[in-house]
Design brief:
By secondary structure, the protein is α/β, with parallel strands linked by helices. It has 16 helices and eleven strands. It has a domain of 223 residues: Amidase signature (AS) domain (Amidase signature (AS) enzymes, Alpha-Beta Complex), CATH 3.90.1300. 40% of the residues lie in helices and 13% in strands. It is globular, with a radius of gyration of 21 Å. The protein starts with a helix and ends with a helix. The protein binds glutamine.
Length: 468
């Protein structure tokens, strides 16, 4: 399967056309997505029109964009003008995007072709894509297993070869964990580097848009197209100019003892993570031990902060402004019925939890306290980054689990985010890279965390690890 880099080069060099590339991927999607279920909708018609426009531009001698003719899938919480967007929720059924998210537009500006919208946990709340209101997405590595979540459809689409790049969003791990489960690369960019304009808000102080890709080079290519200041997102910033360096030599890689001890991850996951660290050492990196004493409080702090912000953000789905609306005798009944029927159980749980955490009697004990814990975790990382340039650990405690395995108790699912939420709370960048497979043949991901805006060096490390 051609990578994005190979596709754009072949198209720019007139060795193939965007239309040809698209048709081959649409054929594959048609053959295999019935089983995998990565897409909620394939944009056949507009994708064909987009590919034809790229081909016309190139035939006319126009300069091809960096993603010329590259088929890209987008998570179903990103707006693409004129296309439906549901966040995999009944409450947004029938909603059509009135404008295009900046992240999607930046890919279009580089001549990418948007092939469809991918399945996800409803409103990005979950770690398995089982919370989608519409369908199940299977892990291409093993159809009995979940693809991870919440960007499970995007990870499955890349892993199945439907497209070399997909967009996801990561609030507490939703790009990195499905990337690990499906055996692809996934980047959570530093908060602020990629515009959130046109991303449906879940928890605004944590949400980030980012790419998933089948190679480290494609991940970098996508990130470079996505990153940049956007006046439409007040939290977006222009990343500082990148220094130039190559390879892993001389970089200090921190191994937090909290990530490698105890029973936070299974044995095979730990040994593959250690093998990745050893590979970096062979490439000239230096391994150092660091400590993150407060990370054990990250999951509870994350759930208080994320649910609080979600309870506020999701207030806008009132049955009047967007998508689904249930009839009622008066306004209160319209609200109640629309939200009662429109939201699934996990989303309701989070709205209730967040509303409770923000209420007068609970605010200081929960929300304020969680914010303090967030500061402590940020300081832990600042101290660790005095000793190390990057931090390594597993992306998830285990490889992909089976459907239904986490059972009805939401805590089991929440705890599976142990390794990914600290990075989100601290505003760092983080990536999951394939680290091999366990004995059962399931992919395992290794997570690398970097200081804010350290993506350019992180990519060098990733490429060294991939090609090493
Ligand atoms: N799994 C986490 C949650 O359920 C993270 C989700 C995300 O990053 N969107 O909230």
């Amino acid at each position: 399967m051609l990578t994005a880099k190979e596709i754009s080069k072949a198209i720019a060099g007139k060795k193939t056309t965007a239309a040809e590339v698209l048709e081959s991927r649409l054929k594959l999607i048609k053959e295999r997505d019935g089983e995998i279920g990565a897409f909620l909708e394939v944009f056949g018609e507009t994708a064909r029109a987009g590919a034809a426009a790229v081909d016309r531009k190139i035939a006319a001698g126009g300069r091809p964009g960096r993603l010329a003719g590259v088929p890209v899938a987008i998570k179903d919480n990103l707006l693409y003008s004129g296309h439906r967007m549901t966040c995999a929720s009944r409450i947004l059924e029938g909603y059509v995007a009135p404008y295009t998210a900046t992240a999607v537009q930046r890919l279009l500006d580089e001549d990418a072709v948007i092939v469809g919208r991918t399945n996800m946990d409803e409103f990005a709340m979950g770690s398995s894509t089982e919370n989608s209101a519409f369908k199940r997405t299977r892990n291409p590595a093993n159809p009995d297993c979940v693809p991870g979540g919440s960007s499970g459809g995007s990870a499955a689409a890349v892993a199945a070869g439907f497209c070399p790049i997909a967009l996801g969003s990561d609030t507490g791990g939703s790009i990195r964990q499905p990337a690990a489960f499906c055996g692809v690369y996934g980047l959570r960019p530093t908060y602020g580097t990629v515009s959130r304009h046109g991303l449906t808000a879940f928890a605004s102080s944590l949400d980030q848009v980012g790419p998933l890709a089948s190679t480290a080079e494609d991940l970098q290519l996508a990130f470079e197209a996505l990153a940049g200041h956007d006046p439409k997102d007040s939290t977006s910033v222009a990343p500082p100019a990148a220094g130039s360096r190559a390879g892993a030599a001389g970089l200090r890689i921190g191994l937090p003892k909290e990530f490698f001890s105890g029973d936070n991850a299974d044995e095979e996951t730990l040994s593959l993570t250690k093998a990745a660290a050893a590979a970096l050492e062979r490439l000239g990196a230096r391994l150092v031990e660091v400590t993150l004493p407060h990370v054990r409080y990250a999951v509870p702090a994350y759930h208080v902060v994320a649910a609080s912000e979600a309870s506020s953000n999701l207030g806008r789905f009132d049955g009047l402004r967007y998508g689904f609306s249930a009839p009622g005798a008066d306004l209160a009944e319209v609200y109640k019925k629309t939200r009662g029927l429109g939201f699934g159980p996990e989303v309701k749980r989070r709205i209730l939890l967040g509303t409770c955490a923000l209420s007068a009697g609970c605010h200081d004990a929960y929300y304020l306290k969680a914010q303090k814990v967030r500061t402590l975790i940020k300081r832990d990382f600042e101290a660790a980054f005095e000793k190390a340039d990057f931090i390594i650990g597993p992306t998830a405690p285990t490889p992909a689990f089976r459907f239904g395995e986490k059972g009805p108790d939401p805590l089991a699912m929440y705890l599976s985010d142990f390794f990914t939420v600290p990075c989100s709370l601290a505003g760092l960048c983080g990536v999951s890279a394939p680290a091999g497979r366990n004995a059962a043949g399931l992919p395992v991901g290794v997570q690398l965390l970097g200081r804010p805006f350290s993506e350019p060096v992180l990519f060098e490390l990733l490429k060294a690890l991939q090609n090493g």
